[in-house]
Design brief:
The chain is α+β, with helices and mostly antiparallel strands. It has one domain: Alpha-Beta Plaits. Helices cover 51% and strands 27% of the residues. It is built from 3 helices and 3 strands, in the order βαββαα. It has a 3-stranded antiparallel β-sheet with strand order 1-3-2. The longest helix has 21 residues, at 18-38. It is globular. Keywords: Coiled coil. Residues 18-45 form a coiled coil.
Length: 108
């Protein structure tokens, strides 16, 4: 059975001005589109920015054989897009441990 997961991740962006946010939005959108083309289990990825809040939100839907597999696909593709566009994901594993616990509770 295939499981679908909709994942939304919000990031605080430091050291970026309005023009930087527009470039980040464009670059991430392009990279996520390329990842969707390369991975049939990644769907509907989108990027939203709030210059005022200095945040970037990436949303994606992914499929997998289990909840954990689908969640892993979404997280991996989001992280790959961030890295491909020059971003860093320090403390990613710690944040993902917390997120996984929260998302597992919501899925039950």
């Amino acid at each position: 059975m295939t499981t679908m997961v909709a994942l939304e991740m919000r990031f605080l962006v430091e050291g970026a001005d309005k023009d930087d946010f527009e470039a980040i939005l464009d670059d991430l959108t392009d990279e996520l589109s390329d990842l969707e083309d390369a991975h049939s289990d990644l769907l509907d990825a989108a990027v939203f920015v709030s210059v005022e809040e200095r945040t970037l939100t990436i949303a994606a839907t992914a499929s997998g054989e289990s909840f954990d597999d689908a969640e892993s696909v979404a997280q991996s593709c989001i992280r790959a897009a961030i890295h491909a566009t020059g971003g860093a994901t320090e403390d990613w594993n710690d944040a993902m441990d917390i997120q996984h616990k929260e998302s597992t509770l919501l899925a039950r």
